[in-house]
Specification:
Length: 122
C-alpha cells in the first residue's frame, strides 16, 4: 500500500469473506478501498454498518451479493439492498457493486433494478 501511495495511486484490498473477525487488523492497514465484502452469503455475512464504523476514511467497493441479489433475488429486493447499502455507507466512498462479476444466468431485471435505485440515490 505504501509503494502504491508513493506512486500516486490508491491501494485496493480484496476480501470477500472473513472480514468481520479481522476488522481491527484491517483498520490498521493502509489500503484505501475494501473490495468484495459480501453482505449476504453465509461465508461472509458482513455487517456493512459495522465495517463502515471500523474503517473510517476507507472506501467500499461492493455492498451487494451477486449470487443472492442478482442470481436469486427479485428486482424489489435488489432495490431494497441498494437502499440499505446507501443508508449504511452513504454516498461518499461507496463504489456500488458485487464481489463476483455479473454471470450470464443472473437476472437482467435485477441489474436494471440496481441501476434504477443507484440513479435515484446517488
Amino acid at each position: 500500500a505504501r509503494a502504491v501511495h508513493r506512486a500516486g495511486a490508491v491501494s485496493l484490498y480484496i476480501m470477500d469473506s472473513g472480514v468481520m473477525p479481522l476488522l481491527s487488523e484491517l483498520a490498521t492497514m493502509e489500503f484505501d478501498c475494501l473490495i468484495g465484502a459480501d453482505p449476504v452469503l453465509k461465508a461472509g455475512r458482513h455487517n456493512i454498518p459495522e465495517i463502515r464504523r471500523a474503517l473510517p476514511g476507507k472506501a467500499l467497493w461492493g455492498g451487494l451479493s451477486g449470487p443472492e441479489h442478482f442470481g436469486r433475488g427479485t428486482p424489489e429486493g435488489v432495490e431494497r439492498a441498494v437502499e440499505e447499502v446507501f443508508a449504511a455507507w452513504g454516498k461518499r466512498g461507496l463504489i456500488l457493486g458485487m464481489a463476483v462479476g455479473f454471470r450470464h444466468y443472473f437476472s437482467w431485471d435485477n441489474l436494471l433494478a440496481c441501476e434504477r435505485a443507484w440513479k435515484r440515490l446517488r
